[in-house]
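Before our next group meeting I need something from you. Please put the record directly below this note.
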Amino acid sequence: MAEELSSLPAAKRRRKVLRENKLEVLKLIDIGTSYSTITRQYGISKSTVGDIKKNRIKLEQFKKKTV
């Protein structure tokens, strides 16, 4: 029975990226850090890095409202 369970693929674990980390990711993108380096540093996927970049304006507007 235990053998059967160990042969099942592990479920992907979703990570929540905090808003502060998203702003740090944007800074890294701005200085030219590769997506691969960012993904390793934060444990997120390349598509997540792309989503953060795509939503830059919303993140920066939120930052202005909270400061």
Q: What stands out?
A: The chain has one domain: 18-66.
